[in-house]
Amino acid sequence: NGPDSNFLHMSRARHWTLDLFGCPKYCRKIQKARRVCDHRLTCASCEVGARARGRKTHTRLRSHTAGTMAPNLSMLLFESASGYGLFDVVETDEIGLELEVVQKTVLDLSKFGKVVKLKAFLPFTSAMEALENINNISEGMVSPALKHFLQMNVPQVKPGKKAKFSVGVHDAKIGSAILEELAIPCQANQLTAELLRGVRLHFDKFVKALRENDLQKAQLGLGHSYSRAKVKFNVNRVDNMIIQAIALLDQLDKDINTFSMRVREWYSWHFPELVKIVNDNYLFARLVVLIRNKSTLNDESVEKLEEVLMDSGKARAVVDASKASMGTDISEIDLINIEAFAKRVVSLSDYRKKLHTYLQHKMAAVAPNLSALIGEAVGARLISHAGSLTNLAKYPASTVQILGAEKALFRALKTRGNTPKYGLIFHSSFIGKAGAKNKGRISRYLANKCSIASRIDCFSDALTTKFGEAMRAQVEERLSFYETGEAPAKNIDTMHKVMTELQAGEKKKGGKKRKAGEEEEEAAAAGAEPTTPSGEKKKKKAKKAKVDGEADAMDTAPDTPSSEKKKKKNKNKEAAAADPETPSSEKKKKKKKDA
């Protein structure tokens, strides 16, 4: 309610906030600085009507958020490859940080050394300690060394009171962890980033104990060890093997198909009738290696051909066709080249089978439920397209359904056409079994089950195929439901059934382990007895009996005088007890006589 309506009052911060056009003429520098600063500019000394009274006072600018003042930045925490460094911030100016003049001063140590000064330095004693600390920092955790370092060098905040200082850190995660562990307020903003940039640039000059190339060597060694640890402890490292295996499998399929067509075309100049008799590429390549020149075929060659073709009729047809073949004759050098190329095709086909077996074992170890539900090849393609099993587990069922059909999806969205119903899961046998009307419905249901199976494989500790087999039976029941109308079992009932089976299996395994442990203990006890012969046992028993007898004798010998004394005492007592009775009886007799 002043004469200047451009001033706005903030009751919480207890100072005036200047409007862009409400600042006096002597605050034009503030207007220029305001264009750089992201926060509101506040003036702590300007008052309502200052411009009207012509008061020329210097204005101080402060940044605030929601009307509250942040703690002053007084220290910086810098993590290097050689150790932790704590710096005192002497002078800071948040306004104009992005100006070229201010950023150039960071490069000059003589100017930057007046702003920041080293307070404490904690060096790492070994490379393992440096790796452990850098792993904790990357995960947003406070290591014991860092906790002790901050407790020794940062003033403690009393419970129930607000701190008047704050520590600048580069990452907000480690700042929040320090706040939780030690109740030390931290900042991670543009100001701390600029100051830490200068500290990183001049760190070897701040710490005088470091030699010229020590920091570079420490950075290089820590970088290598950190990268090796990340690759070694990568959560998705097993998925990488599956991704590479399925990619190589697809490439081999393409190459073998191309090479087989080349062998067919090349050898057909010599024996064109063989292509019509043998359609399989692998068998054709093996026959090329076996036959070589068609003129060498006769009735004796039928047995060898039958071993390759596993069919006596086809073997006889090959021999008959060679006798009336229309192919041209080929020189020996040409046959040698054709044979060498056919051997390569056969070896590639054999390696493809081994690679498929390897992929099956890997999928059974990494994603058993997904492979049991949809097959090893389709499951591996889903993992490869998602990037990892973890990423696939995070996808919703709607994304899994169209995974691999992104181009068709975006084309349909662009042209406003029908979106695709399935992607990679189209290669599953369930989609082919379903009718044309039910392909979309079964693909949606199958994607839902694939999503559940991938999450079980990713986040469960015990690997089992029970869930995958149960969900595969559910998909088959849903197919029959679409055809016959028979209601399938509920998902919750199926999952409860599998869980009870797994629990019963664990109990049986536990009982077997206990029995095996008891049998081992009994066997160990039985094996320990015959180790000492019977004669030695008897001798040992005799020695023990002698020792016990001597000990008993020693114990009973000193007891004899004491027992005799006790007997004498008992006799004296009995005599003393019997003596007083006699005079009393004599007195009674005398009295009777007198009477």
Structure explained in plain terms:
With 595 residues, this protein is of the alpha+beta class. The chain has 28 helices and nine strands. It has a five-stranded mixed β-sheet, with helices on both faces. A four-stranded antiparallel β-sheet has the order 1-2-3-4, with no helix packed on it. Helix 17 crosses helix 18. It is elongated and about 100 Å long. The N terminus and C terminus are likely disordered.
Gyration radius (Cα, Å) is 47 Å
Mean pLDDT over the full residue set: 78
The secondary structure category is: alpha+beta
Lateral strand order in the biggest sheet = 7-6-5-8-9
Proportion in helices: 55-70%
Strand content: 5-15%
Detail the poorly predicted runs: 1-70, 528-541, 550-568, 575-593
Note the total helix count.
28
Largest sheet: 5 strands, mixed
Distance between the termini: 143 Å
Shape: elongated
Number of strands: 9
Topology:
Layout: E1 8-10, E2 15-17, H1 28-36, E3 42-43, H2 50-53, E4 61-62, E5 72-79, E6 83-89, H3 100-107, H4 109-115, E7 116-123, H5 127-138, H6 144-153, E8 165-168, H7 172-182, E9 186-187, H8 190-201, H9 203-206, H10 214-232, H11 237-267, H12 273-277, H13 281-291, H14 302-309, H15 312-323, H16 332-366, H17 368-374, H18 376-386, H19 389-394, H20 397-401, H21 406-415, H22 429-433, H23 439-459, H24 466-484, H25 491-528, H26 534-556, H27 559-578, H28 581-594
Parallel strand pairs: 5-8, 8-9
Antiparallel strand pairs: 1-2, 2-3, 3-4, 5-6, 6-7
Q: Short summary of the structure?
A:
With 595 residues, this protein is α+β, with helices and mostly antiparallel strands. It is 63% helix and 7% strand. α7 links the parallel β8 (165-168) and β9.
